Amino acid sequence: MSDTQCLGNFPVADAPGYEEMLQCMRCGFCLPTCPTFALTGRERSSPRGRVALARAVADEKLEFTKALKEESFFCLDCRACTTACPSGVQAGFVMEACRNQAQGAFPMTGVTGKLREFILQRMLPAPDLLQTSMLPARLYQTLGIQWLVRHSHILKLGPDWMAKAEGMMPQLHPPLRQQLPDVVPAQGEQRGRVAFFLGCVMTLMYPEVSRQTVKVLAHQGFEVITPKEQKCCGAPHLTEGDRKTARELAMHNFELFMQLDVDAIVTDCAGCGAALKEYEELLEGAGEHERLEAFRGKVRDITEFLAEQGLRTEGLQPISQSVTYHEPCHLCHAQGISEQPRELLKAIPGVEFREMNEANWCCGSAATFSLKFTEESQQILDRKLANVKETEADLLVTANPGCHLQLAWGLKQAEMPQKVVHVTELLGRATPG
Ligand code: SF4
Ligand code: SF4
Fold first, then answer.
1. What string of DSSP letters covers 73-84?
2. How many domains does the chain have?
């Protein structure tokens, strides 16, 4: 990304990289992989079309219009196009940079602008405030207000996104951050020492997943350090076009984790893992190149880490259930991790693995996409649910909290019997203790 000067008609610095846009040879290999192109058939909603639009702005053939702003937010940033592209063009990245430009060209004002600023710049960077903000939602559930709201159908009077957001909310539990010990010792013969990166959404919505991740790591012979000063990875900021706050958070986490004497920095959130691995590009010029490279070299998704280290299977208890696996885009496309979760699932005694069609096709969650474009998100989800249904598996396994929320909601709406679980939840169930 060019980060010091405005490029062409881009309104602010930090424009998409021009060289990257030039690499698109318009071959169209990416088209069949793009969920928004599949939905609309519109060239401008395809990777090739999006890159062409951004290039036209860079070449001063087009102004940065509201239509381009909308197109940048309509991109799921699923990166399926990057997997397919022979030139390595990252249309998702280009659109991510355009969202930042959109904030410069058409900044949000009024109450919406203030709310955006509060969430991105104050709430997400402050773990304590973030945790406190969940208290009303927990009271809403425990005092029975949720039951009343759901049974009164009052949500049908509001916008679609409100009903969906309410319906997606899982049963909330007290925050995990304080409960997790700073250090959990390795069990049996020690194989190493790892730092655990807590994802905000994972620990607030699915704390049991993080708990099981630590349990599995310890049982596998790794001492687990969880630095409590860690903050949001910055992914929500990049999604919403706030690269400045994303960089501040990245710098904080980078310096914090680099102080630790650990073999790896492990996370169980695919979105966080992708963001951490991309700090090298985000902080380019702001940190020493070698240290950024060293940081990048340590970050591992939990499935990548366990597969790399070799899963100790002795003592694992059998789980007699059939499972299918949905690949989070930020695991398979952004990090190239596809086989590892499957290997781990197949290694659990008793598990019958059933491959689904289009396992690496997006589920339609994509951060706030599912709330901003409820209808399109539903269509993408329906395609996924049809593939899940065909497998007739008992469980739907995934490895990202955004996918987890969307899939669990979809299964409930469709009255399908499958439950959604994270890979480490299943491994945790099989792990004694
Ligand atoms: S983005 Fe890549 S795959 Fe798509 S048209 Fe351009 S070069 Fe081809
Ligand atoms: S990131 Fe996904 S939605 Fe965006 S252009 Fe690429 S394939 Fe399409």
1. HHS----HHHHH
2. 4
Statement to judge: residues 193 and 304 lie in one domain:
yes
Q: What is the pLDDT of residues 198-228, one digit of tens each?
A: 989 898 899 999 999 999 999 999 999 999 9
Q: Do residues 221 and 306 make contact, with C-beta atoms less than 8 angstroms apart?
A: no
Q: How many angstroms separate the alpha carbon of residue 82 from the centre of ligand 2? A: 8
**Total count of residues recorded for the chain:** 433
75 phi and psi, to 5 degrees?
Answer: -70, 135
Task: Compute the distance from residue 94 Cα to the ligand 1 centre, in Å.
Answer: 13
Rounded Cα distance, 285 and 267, in Å: 25
Q: Which residues, 6 or more positions from 105, have their beta carbon under 8 angstroms from its beta carbon? A: 11, 12, 64, 69
Is residue 171 within 8 Å of 367, Cβ to Cβ?
A: no
Rounded CA-CA distance 377/35 in Å is 10
13 part of a folded domain: no
User: Residues 97, 54: one domain?
Assistant: yes
Amino acid of residue 322: S
Task: Report the CATH number that the domain containing residue 377 is assigned in CATH.
Answer: 3.40.50
The last residue of one of the domains, among 72, 89, 105, is 105
Ligand 2 in reach of 205 Cβ (< 6 A): no
- The CA 73 to ligand 1 mean position distance, Å, reads 20
| pLDDT tens digit sequence for 80-138 | 999 999 999 999 999 999 999 998 899 888 888 898 998 999 989 998 888 888 887 77
Task: Give the distance from CA 427 to its chain's centroid.
Answer: 21
Residue 419, φ and ψ in degrees, nearest 5: -105, 150
Which ligand is closest to the CA of 55, given by its number?
A: 1
Q: Which of 281, 308, 335 is the last residue of a domain?
A: 308
Strand partners, 305: none
Distances (CA, A) of 182 to 185, 194, 212, 230, 264: 10, 12, 15, 12, 16
Could you tell me the two tokens for 164? 């969906």
Residue 320: inside a domain: yes
CA distance 433 to 127: 30
* Three-state secondary structure call for residue 197: strand
222-225/183-184 β-pairing:
antiparallel
Nearest to 428 by CA among 348, 359, 368: 348
